Recover the amino acids of this structure.
């Protein structure tokens, strides 16, 4: 048995500068903003009125949104709790960040690959193109966002990924 998931719902990246990150993801790449949160007293707020924007959600297609979050400010006590297994966290606490990521990939249909490549080149984003030989050949584009997160645009549908086993 496997978990009954149907894909990635959200991926969150830590960013150093919210305005710069939002400008890149929304204005440069064209992904729409779907929500923004403030942060007060160690908790996210559903409103950004009167408070600094701490989290921005960007729609990246399908059922997936990308979160752009500023670094959280944890108290020394919170840091101790955060280091414990999640089952030991206090009932009211959620320390929903941690670890490093290597890169992430967004699926692009093969028919849209060349236009995605041209788009990135026109926006002066440094990009590299790779073609991979496999049973079903595929292509990837790699670029970095302003916080040096490596982003891949990938044309290989999961059905063709030979690592997917029943």
């Amino acid at each position: 048995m496997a978990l009954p998931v149907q894909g990635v719902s959200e991926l969150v990246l830590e960013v150093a500068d919210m305005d710069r990150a939002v400008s890149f993801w929304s204005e440069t790449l064209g992904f729409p903003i779907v929500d923004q949160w403030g942060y007060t007293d160690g908790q996210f707020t559903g409103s950004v009125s009167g408070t600094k924007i701490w989290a921005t959600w960007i729609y990246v297609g399908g059922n997936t949104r990308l979160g752009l979050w500023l670094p959280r400010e944890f108290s020394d006590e919170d840091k101790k709790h955060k280091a414990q297994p999640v089952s030991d966290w206090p009932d009211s606490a959620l320390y929903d960040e941690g670890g490093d990521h290597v890169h992430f990939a967004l699926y692009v249909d093969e028919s849209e690959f060349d236009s995605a490549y041209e788009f990135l080149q026109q926006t002066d984003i440094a990009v590299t193109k790779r073609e991979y030989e496999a049973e079903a050949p595929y292509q990837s584009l790699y670029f970095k966002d302003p916080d040096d997160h490596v982003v891949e645009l990938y044309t290989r549908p999961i059905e063709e990924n030979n690592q997917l086993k029943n």
In short: The chain has two domains: 1-99, 101-166. The beta strands are 10-14, 33-40, 43-45, 55-61, 64-69, 104-107, 127-132, 138-144, 150-154.
